[in-house]
Amino acid sequence: MSIQVKNINKRFSNFQALNDISLDFPTGKLVALLGPSGCGKTTLLRIIAGLETADSGQILLEGADASNLHVRERQIGFMFQHYALFQHMSVFENVAFGLRVKPKNERPSEAAIRQRVTELLELVQLGNLAKRYPSQLSGGQRQRIALARALAVNPRVLLLDEPFGALDAKVRKELRRWLRQLHDELHITSIFVTHDQEEALEVADEIVLMNKGQVEQVGSPLEVFRHPATPFAFNFLGTANRFDGKWARSGVLVSEDLLPLPPTQAIHTHLAEGGDVIAFARPHDLQIETNFEAAQGVRAKISRILAFGPMARVELSHATQPETYYEVDVPALSIASLNLHEGQAVRLRPSQLQVFPAG
Amino acid sequence: MSGMVGGIQAYQGADIYELSPATREPKWARYTILGLSLAFFAIFLLMPLLAVFVEALRKGWDVYWQAITHPDTGAAIRLTLLAAAIAIPLNLVFGVAAAWCISKFEFRGKQLLITLIDLPFSVSPVVAGLVYVLVFGAHGWFGEWLSEHNIKIIFAVPGIVLATIFVTFPFVARELIPLMQAQGTDAEEAAVSLGASGWQTFWRVTLPSIKWGLLYGVILCNARAMGEFGAVSVVSGHLRGQTTTLPLHVEILYNEYQFAAAFAVASLLALLALVTLGIKLFIEWRSA
Question: How many CA atoms lie within 13 A of A63 on its CB side?
Fold first, then answer.
């Protein structure tokens, strides 16, 4: 089922949680609402579910206005951040809950309930835990039970609030893959909220990047990662080196140094010469020029070299502004071939640079 | 309930504290503190309790038996049970409703409601009794109207029930509010999103998760309802066999120098206290 959000506004006393949000969630896709904490992503999810009401705007479920539809009529499966399992019920009863509370004429028979719950427990690979209580399960198991419980009522949409937030790093990684597989099997329209960019990039079909109650960018993980539309998007998705300076046609003037635009890159015609700009480069898109006397490149000093894996991370600070830091990823082998060492003065040149007007 | 859990954790903490030579206190310090608290306990708590039973049985079982089977005692027991039987269900419903709306909803005047619930704790029971006399008594605000319609509240059973409800008002709500606030609304929201109605959510999700706290509140409420003296004394009028509850009956007997009988009836209240403590212990053990 498709979900459309139209001009949603939400205020909490003097805090604008959502500012005129309009989005389209296509049928059968797994979409990530990504953003830092306080950006409004959970509020938006709760408004779609009906657990929160918007001050203005509309929620359309399958094209029909659902703004005034009660939560229980929206047929939405909602998975809470801390799972909200019913502590006094066994795993089986937790999953069966949605079936047991159905009105008498819709309620399946006891045998049908039993069969459905067993199926779902098999689906989440926890068939042997039916008799346990939530307090006897691990975090990852609880999460899967919460998912089975939400799926029991055949929801038209699945909404997941920070589904991996409460798990430790290893389990999280495993469950991500599992959730992706499950989604590929079920094809149910799903939205999940996360503040972890890696998680969003890895699991989602589409990413909605949010900041301060507004949508910054919408696109596939590749699009959003490769072509961030705003400085915020660049900064939030992965590590970024930031250069503040003035636009100078052939590059960015950072204090006295020219950060040259790589020759392969298209000229930014929309930028005014001499105007303030912010430029970003990923750590692997910066190169270290050992010739400190070179005409171009930002002067910097190597403060640390971390060479653990095949890629080494070089940490630098600006030559005259020591509180400005940069990170460069280079193959570990070139540390030796370039003879890099801590304390060395070098210049930085980008092989890929994204420039945005400042402000 | 949160208090109980905290107590158990604190106990485990003390255990670890005692086992480690790095943190263990010297023996004399431990025994002094233990001795002091045990002595205090014995003098102020245990001795009076024993005294009640010793005094009650001083003149033998026959006198004891006579005292507790006397028709006036029987009437007092019935009145006490009646007052409790009315006050507790009312407070149960009110307490759950108040705790529900305070912990699950945001509204104006919430703080005022919480303060009001505590009023019976902060005001002297005698004042509470007097207020009822002023309002419903013969010369009170509604006195004339009530006597015209031949309704008797003060110096009658309704007054006693009203006073009992007043003093036991906070017990259930006070027990449930922190518990329900700590539990939050996640489980209820989950239930509703799965299609449960408000009624189903309450019976299947909320009530089971607060049942021990609720029972605990009811037990405390019951103990207070049966043991209340001050407020009930003001509105009762002390009509023997008619408007005396157990605590009032004890006072009457004592004032008439029937010490053995007074203590015999008092021993019933002491037994009630022991039963209450026993149930309380059981609940703490079950809910831990």
Answer: 0
A350-A221-A330 Cα angle (round to 5): 30
* B192/A77 Cβ within 8 A: no
With CB atoms and an 8 Å threshold, state whether A102 touches B195. yes
Q: Which residue of A has its CA nearest to B196?
A: A101
* Angle (deg, nearest 10), helices A110-123 and A91-100: 130
pLDDT of residue A90: 94
For residue A359, is pLDDT > 80? no
Closest CA to A29 of A176, A184, A200, A148: A184
pLDDT of residue B6: 40
Q: Which residues of B touch A102 (CB under 8 A)?
A: 195
pLDDT at position B2? 40
> What torsion, rounded to 10 degrees, do the Cα atoms A159, A101, A60, A202 define?
10
What count of other Cβ atoms lies within 10 Å of the Cβ of residue A64? Answer: 9
Tokens read off for B273:
């206290």
Residues A184-203 as b or e (16 or more Cβ within 10 Å = b): eeeebbbbbbbbbbebbbeb
Tell me what the pLDDT averaged over chain A comes to. 90
| pLDDT reported for residue A227 | 87
CB A175 within 8 A of CB A192: no
Give the minimum alpha-carbon distance from A99 to chain B in angstroms, rounded to a whole number. Answer: 8
Mark yes or no for CB contact B196/A82 under 8 Å. Answer: no
pLDDT of residue A267: 64
In B, residues 155-194, which contact A (CB 8 Å cutoff)? Answer: 186-187, 189-194
**In the sheet that A206-211 helps form, which strands lie side by side, from edge to edge?**
A76-79, A157-161, A189-194, A30-34, A206-211, A214-219
d(CA A209, CA A201): 11
Q: Quick one: which of A63, A52, A54 has its CA closest to A20?
A: A54
Q: What's the token pair of residue A173?
A: 């990684």
What are the residue ranges of helices labelled H in A316-356? Answer: 332-337
Residues of A with Cβ-Cβ distance to B1 under 8 angstroms: none
Residue whose C-alpha is closest to residue A84's, from B201, B6, B5: B201
Cα gap B97→B92, rounded to integer Å: 8
Which of A48, A86, A117, A133 to mutate to probe the B interface, most B CBs <10 Å?
A86
Chain A residues inside the 8 Å CB shell of B187: 84-87
What lies within 8 Å, CB to CB, of A266 at 6+ separation is none
Tell whether ipTM is more than 0.90: no
Mean per-residue pLDDT, A152-159:
91
**pLDDT tens for residues A266-306?**
666 677 788 889 999 999 999 998 888 888 889 999 999 99
Q: Best of B105, B185, B193 to disrupt the A interface by mutation (most A CBs within 10 Å)?
A: B193
Which residue in A has a C-alpha nearest to residue B205's C-alpha? Answer: A86
